[in-house]
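Schema walk-through. Below, the input block comes first and the output block second. Nothing else is stored per chain. Lengths vary across the set, and this one has 332 residues.
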Amino acid sequence: MPDSAPRLLRLSCLRERREAHAAGLPYVKSAELSKVRITRVKRTEKRAWLADVSAVVLQQALRDLEAAYKNLKDSSGRYFMSFVVDTVPDVLPEVDTEAGIDLGLSTFAVLSDGTRISSPKFLRRAGKNRAKARIKVARQHAKVADRRRDFRHKASIRLIRDNQAVYVEDLAVSGLARTRLAKSVYDAGWSQFVNMLEYKAAKHGRYFGKIGRFEPTSQDCSACGVKDGPKPLHVREWTCKACGTIHDRDDNASKNTLAAGRADRLNASQSAGKTRTKVPAPHEEAGSHPDGQVIVEGTLARQGGKRVNSTVLGFGVPEIAAGGDLRGALTR
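--- output ---
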């Protein structure tokens, strides 16, 4: 029995860890296993024979089990089985030759009869293959980056060309990048896209505005202005309790962003007029009817016979949302 003690100990400790894992308990450390499965068990009548086994052997069995667990986390997907069999010596027939062997690095071995065994240098070969693979991966990343940049340039210039004004939400990208959405956030590249919109708007004489990141764009009904309250992200469609309008979450948010952006721009223009501060020409999107009503035609507004377009960007949707109803928006 003492000869099989290390194997039995490993099996016992392995069972202990599996049961703990199945029960949702913390990982059982080797120190705890040593107390429970060696020190205490030795004092029982059933396992008293463990006292006849060297403590060094038993501790080594625990170290072997620990090493197996660590190797399982960086494993190559291969499995090994160990077993013991009884064999008899396989004695080869005698020969007359003898050899002296000189081991080296450039040549693996040189025999006394002049035979040379070349060094395979497996690690260096694998290193070269890894370097080639790294270059391939780097090229793929570069292609992805180029495609992202090209897409953002095309989308941003199209929006600036087609609209007199664009409004976006001031997103906390750095905060979102620390969540489980980090990969998707970085892939979307909102920050770079917004920067492109901003400098292209300035370059081409368009208006670019940001609304506050705490604006409740997903909570307000864009049709009647009633605040319906916060909603979890999985709710993609909802019905306004006040007016009964059925909203797509992202479409509704984009319309609210448009209304908030226009309101902020109007307030800034009025404030600048009172303080005599110079501001860019407003290029009004919405005109005023003689009776004081706002005239809106889809996403197009009329003023002085001109049709002027404005849009808002709603991030987190497959397409770029545009449009909105101004009626009641400026009063909210």
